[in-house]
Amino acid sequence: MTRDKNTYNKIQPVIKRLLNYIKPYKRKLFSVVIFAVCSTSFTILSPVILGLAVTELYEGAVQGSKVDLQYIFLIICLLAVLYLLSSVFTYMQEYLLIGVTQKIIYTLRSEVYQKLYKLPITFFDHTSHGDILSRSINDIEKINNTFKQMISQFLTSVISLLGIMLIMLYISPLITGVVFLIIPGSIFITKKIVKKSQLYFKNQQKLLGNLNGFVEESYTGQETIKAFNLENDADENFQKRNNLLYEYSWKAQYISSTITPLLKLLQNMVYIVVCVLGSIFVINQLITLGNIQAFIMYVRQFQQPVNKLATIMNTIQSTIAASERVFQLLDEKEQPLSAKKNADHSSHNNEFVHFENVSFSYDHSSSVINNVNLKINKGETVAIIGENGAGKSTLSLLLLGLLAPSEGRILIGGNNIHQIEEQEKFELFGTVFQENWLFSRSIRENIAYGSKADDVTDEEVIKAAELAQADYFIRNLPDGYNTIINESGSNLSEGEKQLIAIARAVMAQPEILVLDEATSHVDMMMDERIQTGLQGLMRGRTTFIIAHQPSTIKTADRIIVLENGEIIQEGNHDELWQKHGYYKDFIS
């Protein structure tokens, strides 16, 4: 009993939340209900009217009286009109319902897409990309495929049940009491099966996300898999996940599919009883042949909505499992919102960037950044060095506002970075990461993406590419600046992609430039060419450089040495060279 209650308590909020998406379309759904009532009512009335024709023919045959063919013809015409009206109202019902459900799914997709932009970087670090894609695409598509069917079948089934029950009670309350035995039996069967299969449906969606994550990882890591001859290992891992998904999917579908045959068995037993009782009633002239014929037709019609409601319970299970995963994504903690106000970036005493007692931890247990205090002047170039894992990239992400400090704050011109409006942040920073993402668009569009202006000229794009030392190789491509970068970016080398990313940062013309291993994918000769170009970009701008190459670091106004998230050395090249420690060993 406790287990049933827990299952219900988990399902109820999901259903309630799904219903909240329907609220804006209450008027249209009210129209859908009216059309469903009309359509179903016309269909329900048909057996009674047909029974009148059967009774007329039966009495004429038994009593030897003349059959009123005009009466029969009128009944046939009436039936034709009822079926036609039923079809028209069904069409109108489906038309409105499709519009409502597609708008609901559109809203849900939009919410998920917008949510992904609001999530902190740490979420993507700790969550499989394939699982995120599965929630954003597969689970929403599962809801899309079942939502309309669920609403439509539920409405028509409930209305049909009520209408058929009323007419059957009118024809024969006694026989109707026998038919009603189907309802508690159906509820008992459905409840037992749903309880058992729900867990499998939930795990099915979870394992599907896991499999998507593995496939996405295998696809992006094809070169490594082939280089280390790990094809068999990858295939074995895939088969394990695929077999597990198959097992849970099979069990979920098998257990839930047993609802239909068990209900049919129950219904057929009741149907036999109804036929026997009906025959006895007709022989004893307690009911007309036409009415019992109509009643038997209603018994069959009564079974259909019961079966549909059982099918809906099956559908609801998979829909709830998918919805629960989507809502979990929507409920993830978001990146702290920036205040909607214009920040004053004017600096006092030339101090522009201030790290004030900043600490950060990804898992709230071990700190990656420990009590960092830094005051950077406007126009100053700061190089940050340290061993792998020292916290260099994390420090740059904190500066960009992509991560929120666990303790302390970061001020830009006296304003907390998390109180600066997003658009102002975009205008404030220009960034080149160690691993840069290029979009499946033309090279021109990728470079122009960094511009704050709506209209970017070809001359501006070319100038940015020239400054980043990218123009020469772009012009040698078959389509030049119109070359489309493919989805994985494999039609460009890593160095070429890095140069385009630098050109994109040039287009931004930022106040603060952040270069996180910006030249890590280019050779020494190319690095020198890029450094020449970057000198012009860095002039007059506050610049943070994370680099391993001494040539980049020596010219910095200030050098910060990080170790285990703490600043252990600070000064310019000459000052640090005179001291023994990490920097001197690094340069040497």
Please provide a written account of the structure.
The protein is an alpha/beta fold and 588 residues long. The protein has two domains: 329 residues, ABC transporter type 1, transmembrane domain (ABC transporter transmembrane region fold), CATH 1.20.1560; 192 residues, Rossmann fold (3-Layer(aba) Sandwich), CATH 3.40.50. 65% of the residues lie in helices and 11% in strands. It is built from 21 helices and ten strands. The protein has a six-stranded mixed sheet with strand order 6-7-8-3-9-10, with helices on both faces. Strands 2-1-4-5 form a four-stranded antiparallel sheet, covered by helices on one side. Helix 2 runs antiparallel to helix 3, helix 3 runs antiparallel to helix 5 and helix 7 runs antiparallel to helix 10.
Rg, Cα atoms, Å: 35 Å
Strand content: 5-15%
The N- and C-terminal alpha carbons lie at a distance of 73 Å
Number of helices: 21
- What is the fourth-level CATH superfamily of the largest domain? ABC transporter type 1, transmembrane domain
Coarse morphology? elongated
CATH architecture of the largest domain: Up-down Bundle
Given the helix and strand composition, which structural class is it?
A: alpha/beta
Q: Uncertain segments of ≥5 residues (pLDDT<50)?
A: 1-5, 339-343
Q: Output the strand order for the largest sheet.
A: 6-7-8-3-9-10
CATH topology of the largest domain: ABC transporter transmembrane region fold
- Mean pLDDT across all amino acids: 79
Percent helix range: 55-70%
Number of domains: 2
Tell me the major beta sheet. Answer: 6 strands, mixed
CATH class of the largest domain: Mainly Alpha
Q: What's the count of strands?
A: 10
